[in-house]
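Q: Predict the bound structure with 2-aminohexanedioic acid.
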Amino acid sequence: MTRKLDTHPNGHFLPTIVARNLIGGEEREADSKKRFEARSACDTQDLVGTAPDSGEGDVDAACKAAGVAFSKWSNTPAPVRGEVIGRIGEVLSAHKERLAKVVCREIGKTMKEARGEVQEAIDTAHFFQSEGRRLYGQTVWSEMPNKELFTYRRALGVAAMITAGNFPLAVPSWKILPALLCGNTVVWKPSEDAPVIAYLFARIIEEAGVPAGTINLVHGGRPAGEAILRAVDKGLVQKVSFTGSTNVGRLVGEVCGRNLQIPSLELGGKNPMVVLKDANLDLAVDGALFAGFGTAGQRCTSLANLIVDKSVATELKKKLLARVEAIKIGNPTQSEGMLYGPLIGERFYDRFMEHYAMARADGAKLITSKEGRITKENMGERFIGDPSNGLYVWPAIWDGVKIGMKIAQTEVFGPTINILEVDGFDEALATANGTPYGLSSSIYTNDPQAMLKFKTGIRAGMSSINNSTSGAEAHLPFGGTGWSGNGTRESGVWVLDAYTRWHAVNVDLAGKLQLAQIDVDFGQTREATDLSVLG
Ligand code: UN1
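A: Predicted complex:
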């Protein structure tokens, strides 16, 4: 038996999907009855879907449904929960190409990257399926006889996820799948830029067999997100996990802090890549090209500051510029030959357009040939499709940047990188550490001493040696330091600490009250041997 999706015809495009909220196992409209449109970033004539425009009532209903479902789900044995997570992975695998097409169509990622994004969710499902057969606690010796100590991971309760549009499937899977595996129930407010892939993922999770109310989906914009924070104050939510800007992260942190909760915060970055004079420059150029311009620079892990030893700077710039000036950009629903597609939406476009003045104000020099929006007039041979149908922009490389400039300190989230020339390793490391962020980082060198000094000296949650700043694997800890996060981590075993609390239990079979520290028999010490004869 299969359930049909509710769709509308959509001209020559694939059908428009009617996405709904999912609350307590039911598909629902918002209380307001209003819907918003999700237009393709690739071509705004393509209406990918519509979704309910939710507010506080919808969010509260979802949180309450998740609260009701908690007892049943958290008492379901972890291996059984793991099995359900495994089924989610199977469905994602079976529909990998279709889901990748939705990601590509909705937010404009190339198909190659969109497939990678679905794969990242599949990898996450596989990892947490098997974690259901571990989720280890410890057995610990007691100070006293006939007494045993144990630790258990306990679920937290209702976990609310607020996610961004640039990784609309992979990043939510990093949050939702471990949260469920640990026995929490979930309320998810996805980005309003990507409601369709969110709706499909939520349906896949529900159909995999979680009890009603275990996964709840509430679409909407800022008001829905704010309602989640108010739900924390109302006591309806026990954990918040947020991926997005540092400014909003601070707000989430304040609300959770006053409720004595630790949110998971994955925030902005200004990721450095260092290229030392002994580096393989072609390899570094490959890394810089993808990390700076892939995904149109819209990854938290995108390269921002390319820090180059001045003895190889001229050569590196020449090689990089030649590659950047040859890339194809275009509509990724039409072909696979481009490095990147459109910006996700207007917010991203506005910020990108503002960055030119910011860079110029401090004296940075644009060395790429074209700037701003790609149009039919300026597209030449480098664009595939019709650039007027989406927000497509030219790649930018800024030369003559110093770490103190605003452009070296401000996250742009678009296809732009800064070149900073330095003299030797120490200045390179100081420059790499010269922003308040600390998400990802990278160094290109063949010198083992430099590798070691970089590993120990860089202030970042993630570092690559001879690889780019982006492309973290799904079973290593993901997260940052400084303005990039609050130290919580996603992925691998490390995320289990974000979705469980430790419960310490002692079992005393002594048959009499034994007091720790007080009734402890550490035995007699004897007179000590005199060792002074040994000199
Ligand atoms: C993000 O941009 O929020 O490491 C996540 C990477 C991807 C995930 C990025 N695996 O670039």
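A: The first strand starts at residue 7 and ends at 8.
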